[in-house]
Structures are given as C-alpha cells and as structure tokens.
Amino acid sequence: MQELNNTLLKLETETCSIIADCNLSEAALSDTNANLLKQLDEMKDRLIEIFDKAKSRMIEEAEIFKAGEMKRLGERRKVTSNVNEDIHELLPVSLALVKHGTPQQKYIISHIMKEKIKYIESHITEQRNKHITSTVDLNFSKQLSSLLKEEDGIEN
Question: Which among 127, 120, 126 has a CA at the least distance from the CA of 76?
C-alpha cells in the first residue's frame, strides 16, 4: 500500500507540473499575442509616419515644380502677348495703306513691315519650340507596389 501511495504522490506531482506548465504556456501565449498586437500597431504607425513624410515631401516638390513651370508659362504668355500687341498695331496701318496709301508709302512701310514680320515670326517660332506640357507623375517603389498588389505579402 505504501508503494501505491508513493506512486499516487509521484503522479500527483507530475500532474501538478503539467498543469503548471500549461499555465505558463497560456501566460506566454497571452503575452505573445499582446506583444504581437503591439508590434503590428507599431509597424502600422511607422508605415503611416513614413507615408505622411513622403506625402509632404512629394507635395512640396510638386508645388516647387509647379511654381517654376507657372513662371515659365507666364513668361511665354507675356512674350507672346507682346508679339500679339505688335501685330495688332501693324494691322490697322497695313489695312489703311492697302486702301489709301501712295505707292511710295506702301513701298517704305512694306520694308518696315517685312522686318517686323521677320521679328514676329522668329518670336512665334521660338515660343512654339518652348511648348510646355508639364505634368507630375507619381511612381511607387517596386516593393511597395508589390505589397499593395498582393495582400498576402505580409507573412508571419
């Protein structure tokens, strides 16, 4: 009987050890899950922070680019408007000479107008060559694009 009693005590010790081991494993699993959630939140916050910084930088760079392009467009528009004003000044003179000018006036003014027309044509050609169609494109890195395309890209 003593031997059976000793065996029961030994088995009780083992069951208590197994129960304690289960309790430790449950606590470790709970801690691991809590830590997992914390790590995921930290990763999400870090990604948001990186994205927000990149967004701010890209918007700033786009605005700087836009300001430069708007300045170039304004200069192009101003030069072309000035040329257009020159044309509008010459047209009434030309029309008046066609209708009422003497041959000598037509001859003199035609030479002056030919020079002005060469000047105007050169400015128009120059402005056509400066044609501006600017856009801003956004390209993401291959890693980010791949992650966005494949939701299963986040693995444990």
Answer: 127
